[in-house]
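Think of the structure tokens as a kind of shorthand, similar to the way a musician reads notation: each symbol stands for something richer, in this case the local conformation of the backbone. In the example below we present two proteins back to back. Begin with the first one, reading the sequence and then the tokens, and try to describe in your own words what changes along the chain.
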Amino acid sequence: MPGDAGELLTLQRACWVQEALANDSLADIPALHESLDDVLDWMRDWSTWVVRSEGRLVGAVRGRLEPVEGSGRGFAWAIGRVMVAPDLQGRGLGRALLAHIESVAAPEATSYRLFTGARSTDNIRMYKKAGYRVRTDLDAPPLAVLLTKRL
């Protein structure tokens, strides 16, 4: 919902400051440089779910269908912006968001795909426990790793 954009921007910045610290870079993390208009733009292109606790937006995740890179055929369910308020991390909300976004994948998708910071050990551990594997054979943005999982 567009009305969530301001809170999503705030949550996004809180979460990606931690990513910047873990990966020793503020400059290379796009989520830290987005404006409210940028968030509104991606909300139009991505299916987004939020979690509220006592009215407060405390978590969010987004997904969309994208062509599988390099293959020329097939689609992946791209997962992005798995966010949990810093004061609530470590309680299973990130795993619940990941499970939810996987459960609503478009039927055409044959795999899941997501990025995280190359030094974001907690994130990588969570994704590996959920069945994802790091794909060093595929391109990722600077300071990031690509993880995939078959449906």
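Once you have a description of the first chain, move to the second and do the same.
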Amino acid sequence: MAVEACEAAGIPYRVVNIDAGKDLRQADGALQAQVQRSDAQAPYAVNVFCLPGFDVVSRVFLRMGPEIFRGHYNIGWWPWELPVWPKAWGEAFDLMDELWTGSEFTRATYANATKKPVHLMPLPASVDRGQTLSRRRFGLSDRKFLYLFIFDFNSHLARKNPQAVIEAFRQAFPAKDKDVNLVLKVMNAKEDDPRWGVFVTLCKMDHRIRLITETMDRSDVLGLVEACDAYVSLHRAEGFGRTLAEAMLYGKPVIATGYSGNADFMHPEWTFSVDFETVPVRAGEYPFVEPEDGAVWANPSVTDAAKKLRLARERTKDKSFAASVRNYAKEQFSIPRIGQLMSTRLKAIRTF
């Protein structure tokens, strides 16, 4: 998305690929040509690091050394999901000259954690690489109203909170309602993890829940989003909420916790924001966070979520609703608009 924004705004760039580790599939070759050409391109004055701050330290600085930073203006476009930055990692900011954040939520987090400049730089989103697929491709019914939630088991079960989605679905639609299904698309499931076993058992308690564990190409995942009727996420925290944005680009009603990064685009007319209360992040629930950090996140209301699930289903009966959601999302996540914001900031840096 950063590359597409650069191309839309005429910003020259090169791509430096960083190995993300053996636990990630890394099979998306969309930028393969740019990576191969990067050796032939001259380095530019600005580095933009589109990966978590922890990986900038461990996978860039510790493996590649300080030379990649030296002589450049370094910007961290770092994803992060909590309202505090771990105190033990405060020195990571020393590698950066400024921070870009994909949401107001993360902007406030970094502004409280560092004296380095922090700028809101919204994230673009696109579904152009999606392909239209039949529900049959995924083993889903053509006659049901389908609610979808997509999550990565590596992204921490406590944060993604899929149990709350199941609970809200069952509360919204008693077992006698046979016209709805909940589709849970999970990647990186770990068969030997006891938490996964508990989750699978929970899913099996309701025959209307469809669990998909196949790892798919991006075009297929987007095809699944398009094939379903609504998207739901009762997360405890999101830095941005990309799957929510993509569902909106398809004109789908989005039911989501009204907290953290996605709060920036949860328009009250076109989305269904779920009430929540903030609770402490308990030890072991999120990496790098220690009790002394005082981290909190959301505990979404299952009762309110059940209400919003039913309301979203009703709104889809209005044929103009999908078009309105899609138009709003196209403006909100516009690649040319955000590319221009990037260009404006980069020009300002050049005048220092």
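Compare your description with these statements about the second chain. The longest strand covers residues 145-152.
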